[in-house]
Amino acid sequence: MWDYESRVLRSAQSRPRLSQIIKETRTIMAGLYLEDFEIGHVFQHALRKTVTESDNMLFSVMTLNPQPLHIDFDYASKTEWGRPLVNSLFTLGLMIGISVNDTTVGTTIANLGMSDVTFPAPLFHGDTVRVETQVISARKSKSKTDRGIVELEHRAFNQFGVLVAKCTRQAMMKSKAAA
Asked: Which residues pair with 111 in a beta bridge?
């Protein structure tokens, strides 16, 4: 029978080193390179999220947003919505976050901007968000050969297919030449 110290020692020896984990992670990035983006292509992201009261409350508190429309059930019950709305910046972040695994994880150099952000319908606690992303444009950088700029339009829908958020995002992406 092993004593506790022997188990801890053997466990530590069998674990991969951090440098090995980082190296393996860098070689299996799922994100697309600049040249992989096909203009007009629409990604239907498989990842979905049902938004909870806790998601909305935590995000609002973490961003110091005291808007009673998001965090006060009594206040919200007296509005035209009759219940709290999910914080729109949470909705924006969730929409882009859902897209990352299929498009930009590990290959983005930087987000350059988000424009034309709209929230045409409210999102509520209990709604399930699905996202699609369309490639609008892709071009090589004029000043650096190892990168380029991709423009993506993200669209988020609730479980009924109602558009709840939309934005255009410009991202600086690695080129295959850089890899």
From this structure: 171
pLDDT beyond 80 at 25: no
* φ, ψ at 34 (rounded to 5°): -45, -45
Rounded CA separation 138/114 (Å): 15
Q: Please give the structure tokens belonging to residue 127.
A: 């709604």
Are 156 and 131 in contact by the 8 Å Cβ rule? The answer is yes
Residue 156 pLDDT > 80, yes or no?
yes
Q: Is residue 28 scored above 80 in pLDDT?
A: no
> At residue 10, does pLDDT exceed 70?
no
Q: Are 127 and 53 in contact (CB under 8 A)?
A: no
What three-state secondary structure class fits 64?
coil
Question: Which pLDDT does position 15 carry in this prediction?
Answer: 54
Where do the H-state alpha helices sit in the chain? 4-14, 18-27, 53-62, 68-71, 73-77, 88-103
| Calpha distance 100→146 (Å, rounded) | 21
Alpha-carbon dihedral of residues 61, 67, 72, 77, nearest 10 degrees?
-150
> What is the average pLDDT across 31-36?
92
**From CA 141, how far away is CA 130, in angstroms rounded?**
32
Going by C-alpha positions, the residue among 152, 144, 32, 20 that lies closest to residue 95 is 152
Res. 164 pLDDT band, cuts 50 70 90: very high
